[in-house]
Each structure stands twice: as structure tokens, then as C-alpha cells.
């Protein structure tokens, strides 16, 4: 039977009255609204995964008058979006947080759901810490390090000009796709730079937070595609838009935290979301599919998969996934990333004329951001600890890592950074249903050989999730776009 989830119903009172509640209240309310009893025997579409992408897909299917059920493995929605309530007050994000220009799809969703944004603090100078040159302040994208400046400018120019040649929907079709996919970003830098070690180390400040990986783990073609995706249909992607704060992907944040988006979507979908319903098997038969979950089986006409790529391989597929699809998933690995936040009585760096943005060529804090929230006067510094830096510091005891992170902040912003009033961290490699962050990355020879299967339906099964998006793949915007595209496939 079709479910009554008209646009009017979806935009009804629940979302509006929930607006003023904090995340914890909203989470409890969203969870309480989800399906509590037995799963329905059959629906039109089952969506596997209640992250942003799956929830958007489900909403679009429901709006078209089709019955839908989101089956989510965790006891919460949001996947890689997770708000964290600081004991010192205020809400920060343990997962995805920033939004920027050309991310129109997530921006439109946020506006519709009544989730406002605020600009990331950018006044003042950024800080660059180098073992050779010590501490310097700067503005712009590239730090003023004469040992890498020329290499950096040439590299960024090359990456931008090659990325501009790619079709974001078919990067494998470029005449040089195989060549670019046969080399890593690190190998390219090694043979095209004066100070290869210096520039490789510097660009880690971008790859470790952005991919949870290092230049030697990333295919050049994959990186070029990621840059090409950092735009929209009318504005080509560029490195700067991906990496920058002002005018870039880190330009704004959500008031109340990004998890408000999935929580409000889940509140609207109500009992069309089932939590604690990990999917273990999908059978496709002539006339229908059967999805096996931890809460029982559901028969459906179509399935949308919105789980992170490596998690899809944990599901038993009858019939099995096509070879290209399986190989693609086997070669897509989640990055290694954690976020560490330290809270101070005030944002003391601002008084010193600093933006709170910093990069370093060593230590636990390779990239730092001002992570203050408007609702408190506290200062909050955020460190991304990813890739090889995660391997070094993510495996230490919490106390040892906390000390290393605070020392990293202190090298950038001064000794006051050593005395926070609160400290918190979240390691995504420990998350059973994500297994790493922020995105699944591709190494050598994947995108050019099996990449073209990324959106190809498998019978009744359609693919969503941010990794399947053509623009802003790996980001919230990509998750929304992919959910919308998969829903449109099912509906047609
Ligand atoms: C630390 C970090 C920082 C980030 N920073 C940013 C940022 O600043 N800006 C930005 O735009 N993006 C950022 N991202 C990326 C962004 O969060 C993701 O692109 C987006 O949230 C992905 O949404 P999704 O729905 O595609 O996948 P997910 O959020 O991963 O959702 C997938 C869902 O599937 C569920 N699932 C998995 N397996 C099964 C199964 N077998 N059965 C049922 N359910 C299953 C999972 O539990 C999960 O809820 C960041 C991510 C992290 C982790």
C-alpha cells in the first residue's frame, strides 16, 4: 500500500517544532518516531543505510507516492554525520561539518529543513609551522615557504588544468585516464618537482583531512576527478574550491550541527525508518527482491544501497555482484581519520590576529581549524588526524594523543593552547558501520578499469551514497545528489 508521505506531510509540524531542541532531544525524538514493531512484509523500495544519502533517496521515493523503508544498521541515523554535545556547552560535529559554494543540493536541503548556516571564522592570518623555517603567518592557499612555493604553484596549476579536462560522470573516458591512473599523486610529484619531499609533505595537509590518506595511496586520476567534482554543472571544480575556507568547501557550518539534517529527515519519515536493522543478505528473484535484516525480511520491487562501499561487500548478494562492481568495491578503501577538538575559555588566537587555521609539516596536528560555535563564547580548535599521521598518533593512548594534539596547537597558536577546559576526539576507523573516513578512496588502476560500474544498477538494486556522486563526491552535497539520482532511477 502506498505510504502517505506527501510533500505537505513531510514539511509538516514535526520539523518546525523540533527546530529549537538540542541534538540529544532531537535524536531521542527522531528515534522514537522510527518503526518500533515488526518490519512490513513488503514495500515498493527498501533503502539500505540511513545516512544523508539514503534518507534523501527515501524521501524522494515517498514523495512520489511509493512505499519505502529505510533499514539502518546503527541505533541512530546520520552515518558519517554525528553531532557531539560538548560537556562545556555547545554542539560540534564529530563527522562531516563544512559546506561551501557550489554545494547547492545540500544547501537547498538545509534551507528546506530550516537548518541555518554560519560562516567559518577567517579573519586574521593563517599559521604555517615548518621544521626548517619555524612558525610563519600567511594568507591565501599556499604557505610562504620558499623551499616549496614554486613546486606548489606548478602542481596546483597542473592539477586544475587536467581536472578541467575530465568529464565528472566518466573520468575513465579521458584519453590519458589509464596513464594518470597508473601513477600515484606521490609518484607524479616525485618526478615533477624540485623539492619532491617538501611538496609531498605539504600536500599531506590536504590529503590527510580530505581523504584520510596520503599521496602514495591515491591514484592521480582519482585525485584529478575529486578536484573536478569540486564544483557544479556551471562552475568547474578547482583545487582551491576544494581546499579553501573562504570561497571553498570549508566556508560555512550548520547552526546546531550537520546531524540536524538527517535527524530532521528521519523525523519526517517517521516509521518508514527502521534502526538496528543491519542488512545481511539481498536476494533478487524474477518479480521482486528480498532484503534480509537483523529485524526480519522485507520483500520489495527495488533496493537502493546507500552504505559506504566497503560495507556493501559484507552483504551476501544472490545473485552475486557483477565482477566489475565487486572488484571496484574491493579496491575502494575507507580513509583513516579522526577529529580532535580542544575547548578554551575564549578564542585567544583571534585576539592575536590569527584565524585559527593552521598547517604544519610535522606532529599530530597537520591541519587545524577554528571550530567555535556561535552559541558559546568558548574557543574551540579542531585538528584532523588522518592517514600516516593517524597511523602514528591514532594508535597512542588517549592521554598521549591529547598531549601531542595540544602541543601541535601550541606550536601554531601559543602556549595557552596547552590548557583546554575540555577535550574530545572521535576516531572513525573504530566505527563498525563506517570503518574509516571521510570517504572511500581509490589507489592505482581502479577508476580507469572498473570505475565505470560505480552507478550501474545490478538488476533491481540501485546505488546511492556520496561515493557515487558526480559532483562533490565524498561530501554531504554528493550524498544528497546521489540519493536524489538513485530515487529518480527507481521512480523511472
Ligand atoms: C570526520 C569526517 C569529516 C568530514 N568532513 C566533511 C565536511 O566538512 N563536509 C562535507 O560535506 N562532508 C564531510 N565528510 C563526509 C560526509 O560526512 C559524507 O560524505 C556523508 O555524510 C556521507 O553520507 P552517506 O549517506 O553517503 O554515507 P554514510 O553517512 O556513511 O551513511 C551510510 C549508512 O549506511 C549504514 N550501513 C552500513 N552498512 C549497513 C548495512 N549492512 N545495513 C544497513 N545499514 C548499513 C551506516 O550505518 C550509515 O548510517 C566528513 C566525514 C567524516 C567522517
Features:
492 residues, alpha/beta, FAD/NAD(P)-binding domain, 22 strands, globular, disordered N terminus, binds flavin-adenine dinucleotide
Describe the protein's architecture and organization.
By secondary structure, the protein is an alpha/beta fold. It has helices at residues 7-10, 13-18, 23-33, 52-63, 104-113, 149-163, 177-181, 185-191, 196-211, 220-228, 239-243, 260-269, 309-312, 323-331, 348-351, 387-394, 398-413, 476-491, and strands at residues 42-48, 68-71, 83-85, 91-93, 98-99, 117-119, 125-130, 134-138, 252-254, 273-274, 279-284, 289-293, 296-305, 316-318, 332-334, 337-344, 354-360, 367-370, 379-386, 422-427, 440-442, 461-463. It has a domain at 7-80 and 258-321 and 458-491: FAD/NAD(P)-binding domain (3-Layer(bba) Sandwich), CATH 3.50.50.60. The chain is built from 18 helices and 22 strands. The strands form 5 sheets. Strands 1, 2, 10, 11, 12, 13, 14 and 22 form an 8-stranded mixed sheet that branches. Helix 5 (104-113) packs across helix 18 (476-491). It is globular, with a radius of gyration of 22 Å. The relative contact order is 0.20. The structure holds flavin-adenine dinucleotide. The site of flavin-adenine dinucleotide has 39 residues, from helix 4, strand 16 and helix 18.
Amino acid at each position: 500500500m502506498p505510504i502517505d508521505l506527501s510533500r505537505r506531510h513531510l514539511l509538516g509540524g514535526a520539523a518546525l517544532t523540533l527546530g529549537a531542541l538540542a541534538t540529544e532531544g532531537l535524536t531521542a525524538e527522531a528515534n522514537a518516531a522510527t518503526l518500533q514493531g515488526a518490519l512490513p512484509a513488503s514495500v515498493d523500495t527498501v533503502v539500505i543505510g540511513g545516512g544523508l544519502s539514503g534518507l534523501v533517496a527515501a524521501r524522494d521515493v515517498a514523495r512520489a507516492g511509493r512505499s519505502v523503508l529505510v533499514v539502518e544498521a546503527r541505533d541512530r541515523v546520520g552515518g558519517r554525520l554525528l553531532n557531539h554535545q560538548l560537556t562545556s556547552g555547545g554542539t560540534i560535529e564529530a563527522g562531516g561539518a563544512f559546506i561551501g559554494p557550489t554545494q547547492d543540493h545540500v544547501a537547498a536541503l538545509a534551507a528546506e529543513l530550516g537548518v541555518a548556516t554560519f560562516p567559518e571564522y577567517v579573519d586574521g592570518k593563517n599559521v604555517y609551522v615548518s621544521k626548517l623555517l619555524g612558525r610563519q603567518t600567511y594568507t591565501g592557499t599556499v604557505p610562504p615557504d620558499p623551499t616549496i612555493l614554486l613546486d606548489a604553484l606548478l602542481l596546483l596549476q597542473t592539477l586544475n588544468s587536467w581536472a578541467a579536462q575530465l568529464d565528472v560522470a566518466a573520468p575513465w573516458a579521458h584519453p590519458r585516464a589509464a596513464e594518470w591512473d597508473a601513477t600515484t599523486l606521490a609518484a607524479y610529484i616525485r618526478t615533477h618537482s624540485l623539492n619532491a619531499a617538501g611538496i609531498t609533505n605539504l600536500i599531506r595537509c590536504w590529503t590527510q583531512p580530505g581523504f584520510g590518506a596520503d599521496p602514495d595511496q591515491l591514484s592521480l586520476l582519482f585525485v584529478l576527478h575529486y578536484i573536478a567534482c569540486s564544483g557544479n554543472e556551471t562552475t568547474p571544480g578547482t583545487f582551491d574550491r576544494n581546499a579553501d575556507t573562504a570561497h571553498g568547501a570549508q566556508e560555512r557550518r550548520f547552526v546546531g550541527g550537520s546531524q540536524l539534517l538527517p535527524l530532521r529527515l528521519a523525523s519526517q519519515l517517521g516509521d518508514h525508518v527502521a534502526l538496528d536493522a543491519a542488512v545481511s543478505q539481498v536476494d533478487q528473484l524474477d518479480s521482486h527482491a528480498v532484503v534480509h535484516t537483523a529485524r526480519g525480511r522485507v520483500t520489495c520491487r527495488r533496493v537502493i544501497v546507500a552504505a559506504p562501499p566497503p560495507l556493501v561487500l559484507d552483504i551476501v548478494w544472490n545473485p552475486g555482484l557483477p565482477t566489475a562492481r565487486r572488484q571496484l568495491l574491493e579496491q575502494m578503501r575507507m580513509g583513516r581519520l579522526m577529529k580532535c577538538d580542544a575547548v578554551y575559555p575564549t578564542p585567544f588566537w583571534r585576539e592575536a590576529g590569527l584565524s585559527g587555521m593552521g598547517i604544519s609539516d610535522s606532529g599530530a596536528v597537520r591541519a587545524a581549524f577554528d571550530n567555535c560555535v556561535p552559541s558559546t563564547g568558548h574557543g574551540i580548535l579542531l585538528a584532523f588526524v588522518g592517514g600516516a599521521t593517524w597511523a602514528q598518533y591514532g594508535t597512542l593512548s588517549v592521554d598521549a594523543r591529547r598531549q601531542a594534539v595540544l602541543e601541535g596547537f601550541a606550536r601554531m597558536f601559543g602556549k595557552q593552547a596547552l590548557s583546554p577546559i575540555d577535550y574530545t576526539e572521535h576516531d572513525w576507523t573504530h566505527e563498525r558501520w563506517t570503518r574509516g573516513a571521510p570517504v572511500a578512496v581509490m589507489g592505482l588502476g581502479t577508476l580507469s578499469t572498473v570505475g565505470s560500474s560505480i552507478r550501474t544498477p545490478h538488476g533491481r538494486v540501485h546505488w546511492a551514497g556520496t561515493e557515487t556522486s558526480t559532483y562533490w563526491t565524498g561530501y554531504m552535497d554528493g550524498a544528497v545528489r546521489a540519493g536524489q539520482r538513485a530515487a529518480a532511477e527507481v521512480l523511472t
